[in-house]
């Protein structure tokens, strides 16, 4: 295989191909996208969090998180609730259907993580993780 050091291009291509396939698999399993599943995963651990907290966790601006939550709410997977302490604040809660969808998506996501690691040695997996974490830190 020819050595290619166009890292931005390669990372973009890998991300595009991975998320295209992941979106297809998640739509089939639970009717949602990878971005939407990320919100459900976060809510599984932080159910009832503020909308602003979910936005920060997913690195989405106000418009993007509002649209994402709108779509999840329209599918019956989350509900908005006014915070008791501040009526301007909105808490996001998973519905039972949302919890079920999150569990279905987690199975699919684990399968994709395993597919990424397939054919790699433990050393290569460790190095790959380290490199990705360094890139994330460098550009954070």
TrEMBL record:
SUPFAM superfamilies: Winged helix' DNA-binding domain. Pfam families: MarR_2. InterPro entries: HTH_MarR-typ, Tscrpt_reg_MarR-type_CS, WH-like_DNA-bd_sf, WH_DNA-bd_sf. Keywords: DNA-binding, Transcription, Transcription regulation. GO terms for molecular function: DNA binding; DNA-binding transcription factor activity. Residues 4-137 form the HTH marR-type domain. This is Organic hydroperoxide resistance transcriptional regulator.
